[in-house]
Amino acid sequence: MRAADIASDLTTVLVTEEQIHEKLGQLAAQVESDYEGKNLLLVGVLKGAVMVMADFARHLTRDVAMDWMAVSSYGSGTKSSGVVQIRKDLDTDLHGWHVLIVEDIIDSGLTLSWLLENFASRGAESIEVLALLRKPEAAKVEIDCRYLGFDIPNEFVVGYGLDYAERYRNLRDVAILAPHVYA
Ligand code: XMP
Ligand code: MG
Fold first, then answer.
1. Residues with active-site annotation
2. Which of 9, 36, 63, 104 has its CA 20 to 30 A from that of 56?
3. What residue owns the CA closest to ligand 1's atom 22?
4. 86 by DSSP, 3-state: which?
5. Any idea where the Phosphoribosyltransferase domain is (predicted)?
């Protein structure tokens, strides 16, 4: 698909690549100071968090471990089903680790609330959440997100890891997907 065709699928750019990098740098500085002297394990939630994880981790100047979990609560549609399925579990035993879950977006909050409950009994020293984006108007459950990038309106967004039917993940900015694409 050519650039001009992709552009016609998007309405508004909500967060630019530059804004994302500036924010991730600030969050990394905060995380470094909060976790000084502690074993830190970043857990990325596949696949949407791949870009956030890669860029956030490289803003850190300290050593971290990384693991990945794949869950699905969405099909190819744009609304949360609330039903979460583990497609790939962690490889790491969480005992002795301070866990920071790295997510692309908190929409209804159902996925993270399920994940937090799933992690609670696995013996981690602590569990916190970093999310690049959050839609406050879409919340069905409150998620205690210690490190947040941006609050955005209740619109379906793509780019920077976020997809619609596996497309648009490689866009550098986060933009609203034009309704004609999924209508
Ligand atoms: P919930 O509703 O459980 O959503 O907080 C969690 C997961 O759903 C995906 N999601 C989106 N993906 N644009 C996307 O491309 C969106 O606007 C959007 N909202 C939710 C995402 O994978 C997230 O982790
Ligand atoms: Mg996700």
1. 107
2. 9
3. 48
4. strand
5. 18-164
Residue type, position 43, single letter: V
What is the distance of C-alpha 101 from the center of its chain? Answer: 8
Atom of ligand 1 nearest to the CA of 138: 2
**pLDDT tens digit string along 164-173?**
999 999 999 9
The CATH class given to the 17-154 domain equals: alpha beta
* CA distance linking residue 69 with residue 166, whole number of Å: 17
Q: So what's the pLDDT on residue 109? A: 95
Q: Which DSSP state fits 56? A: H
**Ligand 1 binding pocket includes 159 (Cβ within 6 Å):** no
The H-or-E segment that residue 27 falls in is helix 17-34
Torsion sign over Cα 21, 25, 28, 34: negative
Q: Which atom of ligand 1 is least distant from the CA of 113? A: 3
pTM: 0.94
Q: Is the pLDDT of residue 138 over 70?
A: yes
Pairing mode of beta strands 126-134, 147-151? parallel
**Pair of tokens at residue 101:** 């879950």
Provide the residue ranges of all domains of the chain, joining segments of one domain with +. Answer: 17-154
Q: What span, in angstroms and rounded, lies between the C-alpha atoms of 2 and 24?
A: 29
